[in-house]
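To start, an entry.
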Amino acid sequence: MTPVHAHDAQVARDLDLLGLPPRPWTATPPGTLDAVIIGAGMCGIAAAAALLFKGIRAIELLDEAAPGQEGPWSTTARMATLRSPKHLPGIALGIPSLTFRAWYTARHGENGWAALYKIANADWQAYLAWLQRVLALPIRHHTPATAITQDGDRLRVETPTGPRFARHVVLATGRLGAGGMNLPAFLAPALFPTRAAHASQPIDFTRLAGQRVAVLGANAAAFDNAATALEAGAAAVDMYCRRPTLPQVNKSRGATNPGYFEGWSALPPAERWQLMVWLHDERSPPPHESVHRVLRHEGFRLHVATPILAAHPSAQGVALDLPGRTAQADFLIAATGFEVNLARRPELAALAPHIALWPDAYAAPPALQRPELATYPFLGPGFELTEKHPGACPALARVHVFNHAAYASMGAIASDIPGVSTAATLLASAIARALFVEDRDALHARLAAFAEPELESTPFFAPETLPAPLARAP
């Protein structure tokens, strides 16, 4: 047996030893799923596995991408390796054989693991595909969710292949699925797509060979896109940063521990908001690997304290209005991040007017108001949406935001690798509790019907004393 096959066998044995997944126990009516998970990438896999491990088996994952293309790892994530350290367990849910290290070692040996610095994107994508297979996740590819509406005591999820009906919906839709690309208004729309692109969009970098490329922003994605352009033969890359210096410390890495993962949501709203504002204002530096990657090329220049005030088409390509001067480029890459705004998501159009945002739940003092953070939804403890006006749309409690839009309410556990197992466990526990409460009459009836007399084979069997049926409390 090869090490790879032995590893698969170890996963099967570990799950069997733990009794995972347990027998299904919900009382879901025919034609209805317990949960539809929108997105089959990292967070969708984690959510599905955690639900299965709770005995919630009537689930389905929907992803608009082809197999192997879920998430950004093999498409628009242009770093050479993941930014997280290799020793993070990945989507393990407490099972050693499900860790990335176990997967990698089975394929490259202990010496290969020891020699690994950080995880290559392709290896991470392959690991996720392996998890899909070894956990036998029910995934439907090429199946986008186009609308989510209330349908009695369940949700209706529209897809090109017909509707799905589910009691809960999990939005594991990544950073783009939290709202969309953040494109500043000073970028002329006429630039797109021939003369400009957002850093998260598909870009034909071979077309940039010999050209002058401008990059707006100096975050991690900015450096990764700049390096990709230079490696593809761009003549020059000019990066424009409005700050006088780059951020120096990634404060978010200091919060990657179980305390923050499990405790953030327990803090009062005022403390959560203050913490999020502080981390937002501090910003994060680009990884040193990404900086060294661009410094290998003579054509790279970083312009600090030089914001782009406007960008518009010109005869040369792109005209950049800078403080006191103008510059020209052949192509512009906007590394301007993502917007959190569920109202921009077409699948949520029917629900969005009812979703409570953070300002609906907490009035921040003037010094702590940040318009770009005010669009985050205010979630309940199980990642569920809450109502702007109580009673107006109860179906929101069945929609769980398992992407970056959960950050303000739950901390950085539903979009980043370090906390994804913790997040999935919290999510699955919340959904299990909700399903139990909803199904309690049927479950109590099963309990009352359970009649396996333990002492039937002994002389002390007394059938006349078998328990009476359970009565529902008034």
Q: What stands out?
A: The mean pLDDT is 94. The CA atoms of residues 250 and 284 lie 5 Å apart. The chain has two domains: 3-179+339-438, 183-248+285-336. The domain at 3-179+339-438 is CATH 3.50.50.60 (FAD/NAD(P)-binding domain).
